[in-house]
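To whoever is on call:

I kicked off a structure prediction for a single chain this morning and the downstream step that reads the tokens threw a length-mismatch warning. I double-checked the sequence; it's 288 residues and nothing unusual in it as far as I can see. Pasting both halves so you can look.
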Amino acid sequence: MKAMQYLLPAAVFLLMISVGMSLRLTGLIANWRSMTRYMWLSLVIATFIVPPGLALLMANLFRLPLGETAGLFLVGVAPGAPLLTRNLARRGFDMHLAASYQVWAALMVPIMIPLLVMAGGKLYGRDIWIPPLPLLKQIIEKQFLPLAVGMVIGWIAPKISQRSQPILNVAGNVVLTVMIVAVLFKMRSELESVSPLAAVAALLLAVGSIAAMRLFPFKTASIRETFAICNANRHVGLALLISGQFLHARHALPVVACYAIAAPLTMFAYIKLGPARKRVVSAESANS
């Protein structure tokens, strides 16, 4: 499995370069400046407060073991996975706004995750502190660096970036999907030991993450739906890193894997059946 240690970061690196190629600093700042204080507050609540709170609520309702509770909670505190594809733009989602959200979430991670994990630990009588600097290092290496590389390539060679961006996107998503499937296959014995209620909790967390964004009245339906799909796209890789490196919660792994399965299924269903799909169908009908 040593190959996965290199292929998985490489896939994420390619995806972040692809995102950076379509992202302009002026557009990033414009997206941020268009946000009102109420919208920023709504984003913080829906991204960092509701999902971990929902995870703890379901863990208590379903009486999940402590390890599974930790895994579900860590998924709830870790937003901003690089799994969105350009195809979402055809479904009524704003990919530039999604990229801006991902950068914002990454900037917030070293601040919010230590505070949230510390608060969650206090609820269970444990003193847990995650130093912000290791998280910041991970964010810089895995997200900001490739994002900056992509932005530079897009600025210096826009024609090359237009041709290569779809290739990088497809390659990154294929490698990432293969790696996730391989990890799940390796973990099949651990997954068999997971309570069915833990899998249900993971699915409800994905659904709840989407619903959390839809509770707030953003300026347009496109903005609300883009944030909703982004919020379900929790960073399972970061959750695994925290569980292994800082909490040593080995039993958290299967629940995080359950979310890795549940989230794409939930996002796919939302894309196919949600309001964005209805809007695309209406637009196609109007143009025909």
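Update from on-call: the warning came from a stale cache, not from the record. Cleared it. Sanity check on the structure: Residues 95-123 form the longest helix (29 residues).
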